[in-house]
Amino acid sequence: MIKRCMIAAALAPLLASAAPFENCPSQAFLMQDNNAKMYGIDLASGRANLIAGTLRLNGSEDTASVNAIGFNFKDQYLYGFRKESKQVVRIEQTVEGETIHYDSTALNVSGLPEGIHFFVGDVKVSGDAPAEGETDNRTSSYFIYNKGRGLFEIPLSNDLNASLTATKQPGSETWSTTIYDFAFHPITNKLYAMESDGDLFEISLEPNSTPELVTRLDIGTDTGAFGAAYFGVQDVYDETTGETTENIIFYVSNNNSGNIFKVDLTNVPDDKSGYNPTTEIFTLGPKSGQNDGARCAIAKVEVTDESMDFGDAPLPYRSALDNNGARHVFDPNQDSQNLIFLGDSVDGENINTSSDMNIDYSDSSDDGVILATDFAAGLTAQVIVTVSQASALYAWFDWNQDGTFSEDEKAIDKVNLDQGANSILIDVPEDAANGNSWARFRVTDGQEATLTAYGAVQGGEVEDYEFETYGSVSYPGQNDWVTLAYEDRWPYLGDSDFNDLVLHYRTIKYFSSEGVTSYRIEGEILGVGASFHNGFAVRLYEKDINSGLVKVLTAEQIDSSNSSLFINGQAVPQTIIEPNRAEAIAIVASDMWDHINVQNGCEYFRTEVNCDVNAKVTFSMTLPLKTALSPENAPGSMLDPFIFASSDHYHGDAITDGNYRGLEVHLKNQAPTEAFNTALFSVAADDASNQSESLYFQTENGIPFALAIGAPWRHPHERVDINRAYDKFADFATSNGVSAPLWYNTVNTNITIQFGAEQ
Q1: Residue pair 301/234 in contact by the 8 Å Cβ criterion
Q2: Which end of the chain, C or N, has fewer beta carbons within 10 A?
Q3: Is residue 183 a contact partner of residue 229, using CB atoms and an 8 Å limit?
Q4: What does the pLDDT look like over 686-737, one tens digit per residue?
Q5: Under a CB-based contact definition with an 8 Å cutoff, are residues 501 and 528 in contact?
Q6: What's 730's DSSP letter?
Q7: Which stretch of DSSP H or E encloses residue 662?
C-alpha cells in the first residue's frame, strides 16, 4: 500500500492559515500565461478553479511568469522557476485577514547556467514516510530541465536563506528528446514525459543515462505540446477478485486541446519490449499556449462530492471513475442556471470504483430517452430524446454485446437537438447480436470537437439504457422489394394487364434467443387499375415447395392488442387480424380504394398514360406473437399475400350468393384461405384450378392470375396485355418458369408506367 498524506477537499487551503499548502491536496496545480495565473484542477472532473490571478514576490504583485513547477509532498510547498529573474522560487500561502495571497520567495541557488530559463520541472521525494510521531528523514530535490543545457538537481531545505547548489545530471545536455513537462513516479522515482506525437519516455537518474522510449501511445490526432504532467493514485476495482488496489496513474495535458490523457504506469517492466500500456482521454482541462502543472504524486484522484453525473451501465461496462467511466459536471458554473440535461432533471453520484456499481447503479434522473421501437438487426429503430435546451447528442449501442462501447458502435455522432422532444432514427447493424445489451447517451453544449463513450465533460448529462436486440430475416432483403401484380376478374382472365393492384412487398421476421417473436409486413401501392373494389391481406402461411411442409400461424397466436397498421405513416384504427378465422389472416385494407387519390383527369391510380405522378402509398404492419415460436415452426419468406373482393361492391357475375369476401386471388398454386368460397372453383371460366393436384389460380396453359416478380417492376398501361409489354412473359408462364426466367427485363417502355419501379 502506498503511504501518503491525508487527502482533504480540493479548496481547503483557502481556509487554512499555515504557509504550506494543504497536505497532499487531491487537486492538481496548473500555471498558465505570462503573469503566472494559478489554477486548481480537479482531475476527476476537469473542473478548473482560478486560485490566484497573480502571484506576489516579496509582498508585492508580480507580473512575471513561473514555469517548471513541482509539488513537494514532504514540505507541502510548490517550487518553480521565475522566468524574468531566472530564479528558483518557493510558492506558499499567506493569509492576511480574510485575504489569501500566494507568495513566491526566491531561493539562493548556485550552479545553474546564467541567463537560461527552465520551463520543465518537478520535485522528487526520497525515503519512506514517517509513522505518526516519528522524525521525517525523507529528502527532497527540485529537478529542472532545459534542452541543450541538461537536467539539474537542487536539494531543498526548509531554510529559505540556505545556499543551495545545483548539480547537472551527467550527459543530460545531449538529450535529444523534446520534453514539455515531466513528473516523478512516486514509487520508482523515475521521470516520465511525453513528446508531442505520443512517445512516452522513462528517464532514470543513473549517471549518463538517456531517456528510454517506453512506447508510442495512441493519442489519435491530439498531437502537440503536452505541457503539464502529473502522477496520482487511483483506486481500481478488480471484477475477477473483487478486490480494490491502488494504481499509479500518469496524467498528461495537451496545451492546445486541454485534453488530459491517463496512462496506468503501476508496474513498468525493466524490459520495455512488448510493453504497450493504453492511454485515453480522462477529462478535459483548460487550454493554453503556456501550460505547466504539478501535483502531489501520492494523493488519490477521486470524486469528493456529488457534482458529477455518471453513467449507470453495470460491469463490465465502464461507468465509474476507476475505469474512466462517462461523467458530466452537470452544473459547471455552480449557479444552477442554463443546465443542459436529458429529460426532466439531472443529479449527481459519487462513484469512485466499479465496486460502487455493485451496490446500486440506478439513477432516478435517467428519464430523457424513450426507445420507441424494437431494435432488430438490419433494420431502423426510433428513439425519442428530450433535452432541456438546444444541445448536441452522442450515443453508443453495444451491438456485439461485449461489454464495451467502442467507437465503431457510435450510432449518434454530435447530432444537434432542439429543446424538447426529438425523434431520431438508429440504423441497427445486420450483424447485431440478439439479446439484452446497453446503450449510452451523452448530451453536451457541443463545444467539444468530438466525444467518446468515456471520460469527463463540463456540462450535460449521461444516461444509460438497457435494450433488447432482435434478429431479423427480411424477404427478399432489408432494402429490396418483391413486386406483386394481380388480375382481379378471376375466375376470368380479363384484360391481362396485371395492374388491377400492383405493389412493392416485403416481409420481416424477428427473433430473439427464445425464438420468433414478431412479424412485420411492409409495402408500397404502385398502381390500382381496377373498376372492382379489392382488399389486400396476408395469411401467415408458408408451404415448402420441395417437401410440401406447411407452416401456418393461428389467429390465437397473434398478440392482436399490440398489433399495429400504418398507411402513409398514419395509424389505422382497424381490426388487423380477421375475426372469426382459425388462420392468422392480416388485413392491410378491406378496400384499396379507401387509401388512394386519383390524379385529376385520370380514372385509375398510376396505370394510365400521364397518370403516374401520384406518390406511392406506403403501408407497414407489425404483428407480435403472444409466445415466441421455434424457428422450424414459424412461417416466413413470402407468406401468402392475396387480394379479395370488397364487401357490398359488385365484383362480377361469378358471385351469386353475396359472399364477396369468399372470392380471393392468390399467387399461382397457392391454396386459398379458409374464408374462400370453394364453389367458385366450379364456375365455367378461364381458371383451371385442380384441388386434387394442388393446382390453383392459373389457366389451362399455366397463365397465372397473380405475379410475384423478384425486383421492382414497371407495370403495363391500362388494358395493355402483359404479353405486349413483355414479349417473353408467355414463354415464362407456360413453361412454369423454366424458359425466360428474366422475362421482366425485356420491356416495351412505351406502354408501361415509366415510374412504376423507380419513383
Answers
A1: yes
A2: N
A3: yes
A4: 999 999 999 999 999 999 999 999 988 999 999 999 999 999 999 999 998 8
A5: yes
A6: H
A7: none
